[in-house]
Amino acid sequence: MKRASIIILFLLGMIILLTLLYMNDKDSNPNNNMKNDSTAVEEHTSTEQSNYRGIHIVTDIHDEALYKLAIHYPEFDNTSLNEAIREYITVSKQQFLEEVELNKPFLKENIAELNLSFDIYPVINNIYSIVLSNNSYVSGANGSQSSKVLIVDVDEGRYISQLEIIKDTIENRATIYKLLSKEFEQSEEYSIFFFQDYLKQWIDDNHPFSNLYLNNHSLVFKFDKYQVTAGAAGSPEISIPIDKVKTLFTDEWIEKLKINIDNMPEKPIVPSPTPSEGKEPATEVPSNKKRVALTFDDGPHPVNTVSILKLLEKYEAKATFFMLGNRVDFYPETAKKVADQGHEIGNHTWDHKDLTTLDHEEMIEEINRTITVIKQAIGQEPTAFRPPYGAMNDKVKAASTDLPIVLWSIDTLDWKSHDPEAVLKIVKSNVKDGSIILMHDIHKTTVEAVALVLKYLQDEGYEFVTVSDLKSS
Ligand code: NI
Hints:
Blueprint: H1 2-45, E1 55-63, E2 67-76, H2 82-102, E3 112-122, E4 127-137, E5 144-153, E6 158-160, H3 162-165, H4 170-186, H5 196-204, E7 212-214, E8 218-222, E9 237-241, H6 251-262, E10 290-297, H7 304-314, E11 319-323, H8 325-330, H9 332-340, E12 344-347, H10 360-378, E13 384-385, H11 394-399, E14 410-411, H12 414-417, H13 420-430, E15 435-440, H14 444-459, E16 462-464, H15 467-472
Helix pairs in contact: 4-5, 7-14, 9-10, 13-14
The structure holds nickel (II) ion.
């Protein structure tokens, strides 16, 4: 009896085991399908490569009555990574809109602003550090700044915790405290604003180093405003070369980074062709034709900008593209294509902050960083400047001395209506000789609008020129 029941139990166990194994196998099939799906999506949505393999940039810009917002965030081909970013974006936006709601009566004079932006740093292989930053102003002079660091392994499709990278021991905490104290004290920028007590507190609080990230040569600590310095220091960043802090790393990362310390991949040097080739202001025969300048802001976009280029080519139209530096950084090839087809490239700042809320140095940084990335991409500097939201004062004018500032005379509100017919209607009822028309090449619906606008204006006898050509004669 006993033996028989043992055998029965054994057989039952085997059946359960085999069933489980079979089900497991079945489970892995949808996974394979998903992999196939995601490659299909990738091929479908991006005709142009991103500069950061597996990552794209999404830009969302609004200019409302009481507030304006510019949101930029990374989107991964590996969709499982997107949730953490979207969560951050949604919460940040909600908090801002709640504050706007609370401060409504005070916002008529001083429009509120939210700028969510990010910087991306290649570490090794397909690992990137992403520093998300939140700058907002809701009534009153003092804006708030905060940041969040994410370290992502795109190939493995997961976020890496800082505690995987450095060993969290008492000795290491002491070392970090010493290093950071020294760096702050010796920093020209931060020393007078630095509070040593606050740093000590931060170390003792057992902070899990979630503000720490790597780039391809340094370990960087990013602090929030007021965290360890006075507000005037903004959000300080302390960068320490990796080979100076080797002892902090876990064995796994010593291994990973050592390989890289000896032969770090240098950023490829883009050969910069001699400027001013093929794009002379052209000694055109002055025509009696009515002229209009189409302008496209906030791009480039790897799909929509390219579609617009095709339409422009069809109508032999020249236009001006006011690009954002952070998007040129992702899509240098798209920017190059625009320039190669003879269109004018303008500077629209790095990440679309209202420049009137920045101090002089921040303003210069927004403008110059964009000039650099555009020059890297297309081989020449931008030839016009358009401040985000058209927001200007004397300081902005002074900061952009070398570039002509170009605003617009017709705002198509394409970003708001997403309606090609509505865009055409606005153009129809406002256009005249010399008009500068504002559109945004990041929206799919704008591509359709451009088709309608080009057709209509050509039939009306207009010629399509760049803003510089429009101004020069
Ligand atoms: Ni804009």
